[in-house]
Amino acid sequence: MFRPKALKKTNRDFCSRACKEAERVTSGRSRELHLRRKYGITVADYDAMLESQGGTCALCDATPETQRARYTTYFHVDHCHDTGRVRGLLCGEHNLLLGRFGDDPVLLRQAADYLERVT
Is-above-0.85 flag for pTM? Predict the structure, then answer.
């Protein structure tokens, strides 16, 4: 895929894996930078959210170590894609679930109603 150099410099999504790895090695602050850049929070904010949730996913009792996800070191930061407001921390499965339902509470309620009807 063709990617103009101008876009590579202004849009971090186009940055190569090698570039991201080099940043991680040289800065030592990749997690802090990621949280600040993408969600506007610090590691301390993340840790405070996790503590306020009792160390578990906001929707289930999974801990970062017991979640059934590919990456288990941290929970995902759940946020509104329209406003950017951070809502909480979710295990990988529940973060994907909300995303696949388009963060639509009506659709999620319909899914819950369906499950209650058929079980």
Answer: no
